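ok trying again, last paste got cut off:
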Amino acid sequence: METVYSFLKKCETYFLATTEGDQPRVRPFGTVDIFEDKLYIQTGKKKNVSKQMLKNPKIELCGMSGGEWIRIAATVVEDDRLEARQHMLDAYPSLQGLYQAEDGNCQVFYLKDATATIYSLKDAPKVISF
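nice, full thing came through this time. structure:
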């Protein structure tokens, strides 16, 4: 999981795919945090991405850094604890102008049953499950 976290941090921006009915939806994301030995992402409850993940929690993430890219398939689980939201906001002070841990909008999810694969043009894929 630490390898996946470090890779996503290196990417700075990665892409999150959800579904809305039978239509895939992809958007850029940038938050990633480790809290209580779980990998977390953050969004706002008012956003469509939140509604999509709550309806169908199966997601994929994809990002690229240098000559490598990562694809992660996982199930997201909402963690509605104040401590989890605050930990994410502490890791991303720039979000504190948009979100507060107690604002009713800030939302964090952790990745469950995740399989990450790191690819490159020169090496065999590396598979990491957590």
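cool. The chain has one domain: 2-129. The chain has a mean pLDDT of 97.
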